[in-house]
Amino acid sequence: GPSILVIYMIIGGMFFFLMRALGELLLANLHYKSFVDMAYDLIGPWAGYYIGWTYWLGWVLVGIADLSAVINYLSFWLPEGASFSPMQQAMISAGCVLFVLGLNLLTVKLFGEVEFWFALIKILAIIGLIGVGGYMILTHFQAPHGDVVSISNVWSHGGLFPKGVSGFLAGFQIAVFAFIGVE
Questions:
Q1: Residues 96, 67 contacting (CB under 8 angstroms)
Q2: Is the pLDDT of residue 134 over 90?
Q3: Which residues pair with 148 in a beta bridge?
Q4: What pLDDT is stored for residue 51 in this prediction?
Q5: Rounded Cα gap, residues 179 and 183, in angstroms
Q6: Mean pLDDT, residues 151-171 taken together
Q7: Which of 37, 62, 125, 135 is most buried, by the most CB atoms less than 10 A from its CB?
Q8: How many CB atoms neighbour CB 39 within 10 A?
Q9: Largest pairwise CA distance in the chain
Q10: Per-residue pLDDT, 141
């Protein structure tokens, strides 16, 4: 429900302070190469080891989830009834991995340039979606099934917490996933 807005604000605030703290630690010791080095030095070797491998495992799982999403999107966008055999899914996944590997192996400058343009596309998409949403609210856009777009939809249909506390708490895992990689 609409409580996801509150969840994103809470997690966004936490990550803001996390990034500020990492910046302060980095400025305190410019020899750190990553937050794993910070944990190793400030908490102990066991913490550096644990955080490093946990971080690696997290990114492996995110990579697998992304590859699954690519296959699902391709199934959706291709002509109706298109489905991929397990071998075709493996080939698509391998192609995606090779593409990202190729971007990483070419040059740092090219990788940075690609990252910049993809980030810009994402930011422009977010601004565009906010603009379209604002336009729809201001013009009282009516959906084909009769619902009118209105800011009152935030508190109607069950209020801010239509699924109760359990729905609110379940929203945290979705929102945290969106913040992965900000460090």
A1: yes
A2: yes
A3: 142
A4: 92
A5: 9
A6: 86
A7: 37
A8: 21
A9: 61
A10: 93
The Cα angle at residue 69 between residues 66 and 75, in degrees rounded to 5: 150
Q: Which two tokens stand for residue 175?
A: 């929102």
Residues whose CB is less than 8 angstroms from the CB of residue 137 and which lie 6 or more positions away in sequence, other chains included = 149, 150, 151
**CA-CA distances (angstroms) from residue 109 to 104, 112, 150?**
10, 5, 45
19-24-29-34 Cα dihedral, nearest 10 degrees:
0
Query: What is the Cα–Cα distance from 117 to 120, expressed in whole angstroms?
Result: 5
Which residue's entry shows tokens 């913490």?
Answer: 47
Q: How many Cα atoms within 13 Å fall on the side-chain side of residue 2?
A: 12
Q: What are the tokens at 136?
A: 């729809």
The DSSP code sequence of 7-48 is HHHHHHHHHHHHHHHHHHHHHH-TT--SHHHHHHHHT-HHHH
Q: Which tokens is 120 given?
A: 């810009």
